[in-house]
Write a structure and sequence with these properties.
about 650 residues, alpha/beta, globular, single chain, eight-stranded parallel β-sheet, about 20% strand
Length: about 650
């Protein structure tokens, strides 16, 4: 339990020496002071009478003697007779104002504060005033800024650190799934998925859309993969639209295909695939990548209140695991408006960087995308920034839509060598990136294959050459597979490698790709250590609710250190030579994230003048075995000095 105490005796009583001379300059022990009087430092002496102008009788007499002595000396040293001199009246000398003391609103004490500040890695206490850190340091230093109304929170020896910053998350998707749609975990097997969807359909009015997810992407390679016929058998009359665990692929029934007008003759959109039955040529009900997103644009829109409720639900989950700032990796106008509405009502408890979609909106037309970017300044606010853009350059390895330099391994379904595909030509991408860079927009490019990573870096290089600037911190999202030749280019181009945890350790998703790219290639993925050694920026992005079961960063931190499954389900390690130490991992999850959001002057570390964004943990991370980090629980989350989560 965290104890709260009220300090009542930090201001000295009349006649006592103040606790800190920096708070009450010029007041000495024994002085009798009347309200409204001013003081010259060091005067008056104890017991002397105060005259108008701030001088005592003794002081005035001494001053007159000194002036007379000076005149006499001048007369002796010069041949010119001295002229009469009149001492200025004491009342004409300006009075010195005492600076108003800065007292803390609240002090958090009795804890181990891990600051991420190189000049002071650890501290004993911190003080907060007006949402900012007033003092960070020893208990005595921080106590010096305590005032009569300062509240003190005893943290009972806990570990405290800066808030977590997640640079890739989809709060709207998570909230809608929980509050508005047919949600279920991707750990369900096919029979369980069908049962859950049937229950959802039964609870809805006849003819209404059944929307939700997330079915496991690994089911696409199962003996009985998702197919429209499975849904038709249980829900023939209501349209069904279900997203997978990667939020790249959709599963529809025949009624949904009919409503959306998708037939055997419907062409594939650029960057997407409508899967057809090899024998009949009919759509199977599976839509990959942009084919899925294009279909989503035709689904009924949610109300503004539903959207706000969805993002606030997700933010509450993020606060509970220690996240205080995030980058929404796909924020349409409905999402950004929801953040702004929540902030106007003073209920937004997150610092948000909103990435506007570029040629890949899940809910809007191309014209609306352009309008959002043009008018982005209208929805900027204190907590919400939207000078960011998200692009999809390729798909994902499980569906063989990620673009690689070397081909996927052949199998019975894919007998011909294939390297995946790009959603943009290299020339088109370079042109778009250069134009967006010129507008001051920071670009996040989804690129999971080593070929797509190279093309993304080429596009950033073109933008750097055109602008002659290196200031914008562009990103490669899910930089899973990186050629050794391209590793140094991240630092050279000031491009951030955003890392998603699912591939750092053995998992079902990793196992499903063994037959696609081979174990040897997989062991070279997520080269975090190599990137750091090259001087590259590296950040953490959960991609929640895609792939990961929760937004908790702690299993990801553990796996970044151990490269083993933090849940203990799958044995072995994944690229163990790329494991890093805990201090490096914590910086990636905090200060490096702040840099990606251009907020390093405000948050990401605990230093005076920064915003009071920090979390209290149930364990000392540096004192426990690494395989226990994933079980960490957050006891308290503070954003801008406001406690936004407290463990029950």
């Amino acid at each position: 339990m965290i104890k709260e105490l009220l300090i009542n005796s930090v201001i000295p009583a009349k006649g006592q020496r103040p606790a800190s001379p920096s708070l009450s300059r010029g007041i000495t022990h024994g002085s009798r002071v009347k309200p409204g009087m001013t003081f010259v430092p060091g005067y008056p002496r104890p017991g002397s009478q105060i005259l108008p102008g701030g001088f005592s009788f003794t002081q005035r007499a001494l001053l007159a003697l000194l002036i007379a002595a000076a005149i006499t000396a001048c007369n002796k040293d010069t041949a010119t007779p001295a002229t009469a001199t009149t001492a200025p009246a004491a009342s004409t000398m300006p009075a010195q104002a005492t600076p108003a003391p800065q007292y803390a609103d609240v002090i958090y004490a009795n804890a181990h504060f891990y600051t991420e500040d190189p000049g002071q890695p650890w501290a004993e206490a911190l003080a907060v005033k007006d949402g900012k850190l007033l003092a960070v340091g020893t208990a005595a230093d921080v106590q010096a800024v305590a005032g009569p109304a300062t509240r003190t929170v005893d943290l009972e020896g806990r570990m405290v650190m800066p808030g977590i910053i997640d640079t890739h998350v989809h709060p709207m998707d998570a909230g809608r799934k929980e509050l508005l749609e047919c949600g279920f975990p991707f750990s369900l097997i096919m029979e369980q998925v069908l049962q859950r969807v049937q229950e959802c359909a039964a609870a809805k009015p006849q003819g209404e859309w059944v929307r939700g997810g997330q079915w496991s992407a690994e089911l696409l390679g199962a003996e009985q993969p998702p197919h429209k016929s499975l849904l038709d058998a249980i829900i023939p009359d209501q349209p069904v639209f279900l997203m997978d665990s990667t939020v790249h692929n959709a599963w529809l029934n025949s009624r949904a295909l009919e409503v959306l007008g998708i037939t055997r003759d419907t062409p594939d959109p650029n960057g997407g695939t409508i899967v057809h039955d090899a024998k009949t040529g009919e759509p199977t009900g599976i839509l990959l990548d942009k084919a899925a997103y294009q279909a989503m644009q035709s689904l009924p829109a949610y109300s503004p209140q539903q959207s706000e409720d969805a993002v606030l639900w997700s933010i509450a989950q993020l606060n509970a695991v220690g996240v205080t700032a995030m980058k929404d990796a796909q924020a349409d106008r409905y999402t950004v408006s929801a953040y702004s509405a929540a902030e106007q009502r003073s209920v937004l408890t997150m610092r948000v960087a909103a990435s506007l979609p570029w040629k890949n909106s899940w809910t809007e037309t191309r014209e609306q995308e352009l309008e959002n970017i043009t008018n982005r300044g209208n929805l900027q606010s204190q907590l919400v920034k939207n000078n960011f853009v998200k692009m999809f350059l390729d798909g994902i390895p499980p569906t063989r839509t990620a673009a690689f330099l070397e081909p996927y391994l052949a199998d019975a379904t894919h007998p011909n060598p294939d390297t995946g595909k790009l959603n943009f030509t290299p020339e088109e991408l370079a042109g778009d990136v250069t134009a967006l860079d010129a507008q001051g927009l920071t670009i996040k490019i989804h690129a999971t294959g080593d070929r797509s990573v190279r093309v993304a870096l080429d596009a950033f290089a073109a933008a750097r050459k055109a602008s002659g600037k290196m200031d914008l911190r562009h990103e490669v999202a899910h930089a899973a597979a990186i050629s050794d030749a391209d590793l140094p280019r991240f630092a050279e181009l000031n491009v951030t490698a955003e890392m998603s945890p699912i591939m750092w350790y053995p998992s079902g998703l990793v196992a499903s790709m063994d037959s696609m790219v081979g174990k040897d290639r997989l062991q070279t993925w997520w080269p975090i250590r190599k990137l750091l050694e090259s001087g590259a920026r590296v950040t953490y992005g959960s991609d929640w609710p895609s792939v990961v079961p929760s937004p908790s960063p702690w299993p990801g931190i553990e796996a970044m250190v151990t490269r083993a499954d933090p849940y203990g389900v799958f044995p072995g390690v994944q690229g163990v030579d790329q494991g890093i130490d805990l201090a490096q991992a914590l910086r990636i999850f905090t200060l490096a994230g702040a840099e990606a959001l251009y907020l390093e002057a405000e948050t990401g570390s605990l230093a005076p003048g920064k915003m009071a964004d920090f979390i209290v943990l149930d364990r000392q991370l540096f004192d426990i075995p690494p395989d226990q980090i994933g079980d960490t629980q957050v006891l308290l989350t503070v954003l801008g000095g406001k406690e936004v989560y407290r463990a029950p």
